[in-house]
Amino acid sequence: MQARSILIGFVAFFCISFTLPAAADSNAAKNAPPMQVIAAAIKKAAFVPSSPAPIKNNSAEHIAQEQDVIVFTAPPRESPEEAQEIYQPIAEYLSRTIGKKVIYKNAGTWGVYRTEMLKGSYDLVFDGPHFNSYRMEKLSHNILVKIPERHEFVVIVRKDQAISGLAQMAGRTFCAHAPPNLGTLVLLSQFDNPARQPVILSTNGWDNIYQGVMSGKCMGGVLPMANLKKFDRANAMKVVFKTQAMPNQAFSAGPRISAEDQMKITQALTSVDASAVTAKLRAAYKVGDSFTQANNQEYQGLAEYLRNEWGYY
Question: Which pLDDT score, from 0 to 100, does residue 285 have?
Fold first, then answer.
């Protein structure tokens, strides 16, 4: 009996620590046996829904605005691990150099990259000339630092093919990177008839594009002239189209970065001190010993290559 009394007392003490049932239930509770009242109170208290945990906003835009940092990114062309090795040292170097926190944010997918870029979430971006031109035109970016070598894209076919010009290749297969790669967009821009577009066989790597044409997998391919010279030692290819030289990949800075800090970033990335921290990036894109200063004017108009890509215009 003593043990039972202790148990009942403990349950009663536990119940009064919770909110009592609503007044509307009080009359029914008075007529119920004591143990039923206790059980009902325990059940009601046990199933009161808790407030949901706040959702953490980890978007690049939120990071920049709420944490007062500079968000640096590049297209997700490498694996996340490879990208971290290439870009994280640059973010840390710029943090030390300009005295403000710079973080590298990997987009993960091209869809996220495009969405966040169009929202203006990124403050500092390294990517192709058409993207730099677009951000300059639409997002008030300034182009700071570039790869010094200029781009020339060529469309190639094997010499044993009876093709002398690009117009003859409408509807033919091309080995090329998936859009929005600039070389592929340059190729597509040469065909204005929707019924006679080239057929793109998505191929990763300039060497694989060359081999795709060489093996007969594709009728043609598009790649930089510099890469063609490197791969075509046997002189097996002929060029049926060549672009004018255009500026290369570059870093652009958005309006959340002050003019003073943009100048600091430019000086930092072109300094001899940047050689070690940019080494993996320069190796990935076959850049020489350093980057060089860029300006907006030389990238003017290249955004037009994105005109037919979804989401940009």
Answer: 84
pLDDT bucket at 43, cuts 50 / 70 / 90 = very low
Residues 146 and 223 in one domain: no
| pLDDT bucket at 54, cuts 50 / 70 / 90 | very low
Domain boundary pick from 186, 213, 242: 242
Cross-sheet strand order for the sheet of 102-104 = 102-104, 70-73, 124-127, 250-253, 142-146, 292-293
pLDDT of residue 13: 43
Contact assessment for residue 202 and residue 181, using Cβ atoms and an 8 Å cutoff: no
**Domain boundary pick from 242, 266, 292:** 242
In a domain, 40, yes or no: no
Question: pLDDT by residue (tens digit) across 285-296?
Answer: 888 889 999 999
Domain hosting 257: range is 60-150+247-306
Cα-only R_g, the chain: 31
The pair of structure tokens assigned to 42 is 């325990």
Return the sign of the alpha-carbon dihedral for residues 90, 293, 110, 121: positive
For 96-255, where are the E strands, in sequence order?
A: 102-104, 124-127, 142-146, 153-158, 173-176, 199-202, 220-224, 237-242, 250-253
Residue 228, both tokens:
């063609």
pLDDT-wise least confident of 63-67, 112-116, 161-165, 231-235? 63-67
157 within some domain:
yes
Task: Determine, yes or no, domain membership for 5.
Answer: no
- Of residues 23 and 110, which shows the higher confidence score? 110
Whose tokens are 């966040």? That residue is 116
CA 188, 144, 207: angle at the middle one, nearest 5?
40
Q: Which helix (H) or strand (E) holds 292?
A: strand 292-293
**120 and 261, same structural domain?**
yes
Q: Can you tell me the distance from the alpha carbon of 123 to that of 75, in angstroms, rounded to the nearest whole number?
A: 14
Three-class secondary structure assignment of 25-87: HHHHHHHCCHHHHHHHHHHHHHCCCCCCCCCCCCCHHHHHHHHCCEEEECCCCCCHHHHHHHH
